[in-house]
Amino acid sequence: MMLLVGCGAAEVTTAVPTPTATFTPTMTPRPTDTPAPTPTPACAPRTENPLRYLALGDSYTIGESVPEAERWPVQLVAALRDQGVNIADPEIIAKTGWTTDELAEAIVAADPAGPYDLVSLLIGVNNQYRGRSEDEYRAQFVELLETAVALANNNPQRVFVVSIPDWGVTPFGQGRDFRGVSEAIDAFNAINREETTKRGIVYIDITPISRQVPDDPALIAGDGLHPSGAMYTLWVAEMQLTVCHLLAQG
Length: 250
Prior knowledge:
Layout: E1 53-57, H1 59-62, H2 72-82, E2 91-94, H3 100-110, E3 118-121, H4 125-129, H5 134-151, E4 159-162, H6 178-197, E5 202-204, H7 207-210, H8 229-248
Parallel strand pairs: 1-2, 1-3, 3-4, 4-5
């Protein structure tokens, strides 16, 4: 993926009153019903060296059709920094169209220099789109999950998986068997959720957010298929507290 409290004491002295002395009462402010604002604590201990984050995926992770600043890994880092986390810009290995095996090959080619303090994995939509089998997806997803853990210094508590969004509800998907697409996405997500949770790795389900597109066209990018920066902002809001918890575990 620090509160300082000060206090002090005043010395009290006494004196013999004189006949001309007068007493002027002081007013003590009464408490109000509105509590004083408290600082937002950092979600992880601040480290001397910036934490390193690696995001693995496909078009959703690289942010197809949105500016770089609106990619969800970039937005996530910005949100973590707002909470006091010292974290570097995300390193991203992702490309539009990649399937599980293509991502695996790209990781080998990139040879990322771990260990990383945080690793995310979002992959599978192109397996579904190309009609690849669920059994193949399961086997290759498990291999990618093991790779992610290895890159996180063999610490599964520093890895999180993001579910596959439902492209069937997009304008692009409406020209196809969108109900069949949604059912297939659910099936692939059932696989990645099962394999993720059985290993004690955090699973973040953003698929319900992706299905809000018919009610809010602003959530889809100009290409009619990929999420907009506004949708990615909703994803980050969904995952931020969970990622903070991962980082806080040390």
